[in-house]
Design goal:
With about 150 residues, the protein is an alpha/beta fold. It has two domains: about 30 residues; about 100 residues, Nucleotidyltransferase, domain 5. It has four helices and seven strands; from the N terminus they run αββββααβαββ.
Length: about 150
């Protein structure tokens, strides 16, 4: 008879099956949660921006798609050709906005949400604002994504 070397076999409890079941359950719950979030956002979801004032200035958001300027809040739409007549000093909503911000340029500025279709002639809009002495910043946004401004700016 040979002698066994090493430890005698002992009973033990393996936690590996429990941990693998737990990880699979967590993965399924995560997938369900992400599916619900994706369905609730959907294609018509609005992206809400909280624009912080720079150097104690209040921002005014406008959307730019290359042809149309959309002024927030209120989503007033103005064709750029009509808005740029007479250097922006006209009776269009954009002309009135430019005049108001020009007079309050120490306290206000324009923030532009630029659609991909608007990058081709964004320089024309920024030049118009610069000629009026208005500070402007811009940020790209998806072509079909709706954008809004958080209340209480």
């Amino acid at each position: 008879m040979g002698r066994q070397h090493g430890r005698p076999e002992a009973d033990y409890f393996d936690l590996f099956p429990f941990i693998s079941i737990l990880v699979c359950t967590l993965g399924c719950l995560l997938m369900v949660t992400m599916s619900v979030v994706a369905l609730s956002l959907g294609p018509g979801a609005t992206e809400i921006w909280q624009i912080e004032g720079a150097a104690n200035k209040l921002p005014t958001l406008i959307e730019w798609d290359g042809d149309i300027i959309t002024i927030h809040p209120g989503r007033v739409r103005v064709a750029f050709g009509a808005a740029s007549d007479n250097g922006g000093r006209n009776d269009s909503p954009f002309g009135r906005l430019v005049e108001r911000i020009r007079q309050n340029r120490g306290r206000e500025y324009i923030f532009v949400a630029v659609r991909p279709s608007g990058f081709g002639n964004l320089e024309a809009l920024l030049t118009l604002l610069q000629r009026q002495g208005i500070n402007a910043g811009y940020e790209p946004i998806e072509q079909d994504r709706s954008v809004g401004v958080a209340e209480g700016r």
